[in-house]
Amino acid sequence: PARHGGPGNYPTDGIALRQLFDTWFAEPGTARPLHAIASPHASPEPARGSYVSAYAALAASLTKAEAAEKTFVVLGTSHQGARDRFGMTRKRFATPVGESRTRVPDNLARLAMMEDPCFAVEHSIEFQVVFLQYLYGPEIEIVPILCGPLTAPGHPFLQELGEWSAKEGDRLRWVLGVDMAHKGPRYGDREARRAYTDSMVEIETRDQSGFWAQVRERNDDLN
After folding, report:
1. Is 1 contained in some domain?
2. Which of 76, 157, 174, 191 has the fewest CB atoms within 10 Å, i.e. is most exposed?
């Protein structure tokens, strides 16, 4: 069951949650082809602008009827997991909206740990499930993956994930529950914009090797 509902996050009552989110999503997003979004996993209330920007774009690109035929791969930061490890769970996510369906492909499960205890306390995926359920109904199908700190590219799980994604094709939609940087005045950092912009350039240009080089050079100082 969801455990992070409450003040600052989201209402624990389903009707109140829908009423609040209806006000947040009063303005529709811009329709465009979209297969993935990056959303925060910070508390939804203070970060609602970023959440709404991401999920309004998803809603504009994918109707509720279309979503019923899709699987949402939800990758979230694992704040409890071990280094160089990916965690999965076969349990469903129960939120004030309802109960989701969980899918765990066997080929991915072989390379991951079943981390039910981590999922029980983790918020990075729970928040994404709440927003997805609000948009598309409680019984969305998700593949939940917790991602621990990664020291190098080329992890076997990522390779298998890529191969599985290629086979599934357009059936998949991707949701990343990630805070792009823990940097800024709130954290006592004065050069937040420059450091963050450098990282985003590598992401926007899909420069994988450049991104990893920057992470190693800076010792991942954005987080």
Report:
1. no
2. 191
* Parent domain of 83: 14-179
Distances (CA, A) of 153 to 84, 88, 159: 10, 20, 10
Cα separation values, 71 from 53, 86, 126, 136, 168, Å = 21, 19, 16, 12, 9
Please indicate, yes or no, if residue 18 is contained in any of the structural domains.
Answer: yes
The CATH number of the domain where 117 resides is what?
3.40.830.10
Is the whole model's pTM more than 0.70, yes or no?
A: yes
Let me know if residue 193 belongs to a domain: no
**Full pLDDT tens readout for the chain, 223 residues:** 688 999 989 999 999 999 999 999 999 888 889 999 999 988 999 999 999 999 999 999 999 999 999 999 999 988 877 788 999 999 999 999 999 999 999 999 999 999 888 888 888 999 999 999 999 999 999 999 999 887 777 799 999 999 999 999 999 999 999 876 655 666 666 666 666 666 677 777 878 788 777 777 766 666 5
Closest CA to 184 of 174, 194, 173, 176: 194
Domain count, the chain: 1
Burial class of residue 206 in the structure, from the number of CB atoms within 10 Å of its CB (0-12 exposed, 13-18 middle, 19+ buried): exposed
